[in-house]
């Protein structure tokens, strides 16, 4: 307890009443300011980082053989094998096989499912184009 709390204090003709009450209000506002700063730091720094980490973990759990990926060193390759026990992945980079930690995968460019669907679509497009070209050749030969 402060000895001067609740007493009237006069210094050079100025009266300072209830000095303790002013100090209490000042300390409450300081505490509120600190709590507010911590809350802002959580919402602007920590929470987005947690969301990003969760997204990356979900992406790692969905990796499959044949997915085209980019590493954190910007190396592009296709997944040849995944070892979930050692948390490593082997990439086929145009015939060169490299082993990386799974955390080194920055993003998936194309999943194996998308690649297979794209291959089927391109095969059907090329078959359609081949049949159209042969019909044009037949029309040109008849003329």
Write the layout of secondary structure elements.
Elements: E1 9-11, E2 14-16, H1 19-61, E3 68-71, E4 76-83, E5 88-93, E6 96-101, E7 105-110, H2 112-142
Antiparallel strand pairs: 1-2, 3-4, 3-7, 4-5, 5-6
Pfam families: YajC
Membrane topology: Single-pass membrane protein
Subcellular location: Cell membrane
What report would you give on this structure?
With 143 residues, the chain is α+β, with helices and mostly antiparallel strands. The chain has 2 domains: 9-57; 64-142, SH3 type barrels. Helices cover 52% and strands 25% of the residues. It contains 2 helices and 7 strands. The chain has a 5-stranded antiparallel beta sheet with strand order 6-5-4-3-7. A two-stranded antiparallel sheet has the order 1-2. Strand 3 and strand 4 form a beta hairpin. The model has no long low-confidence stretch (mean pLDDT 78).
């Amino acid at each position: 307890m402060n000895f001067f709390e609740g007493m009237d204090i006069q210094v050079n003709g100025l009266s300072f009443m209830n000095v303790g009450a002013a100090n209490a209000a000042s300390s409450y506002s300081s505490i509120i300011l600190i709590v507010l700063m911590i809350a802002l730091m959580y919402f602007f720094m920590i929470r987005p980082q947690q969301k990003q980490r969760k997204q990356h973990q979900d992406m790692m759990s969905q990796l499959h053989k044949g997915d085209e990926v980019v590493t954190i060193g910007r190396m592009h390759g296709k997944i040849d094998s995944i070892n979930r026990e050692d948390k490593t992945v082997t990439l086929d980079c145009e015939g060169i096989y490299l082993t990386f930690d799974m955390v080194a995968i920055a993003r998936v460019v194309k999943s194996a499912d998308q690649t297979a669907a794209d291959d089927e679509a391109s095969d059907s497009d090329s078959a359609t184009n081949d049949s159209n070209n042969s019909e044009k050749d037949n029309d040109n030969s008849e003329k």
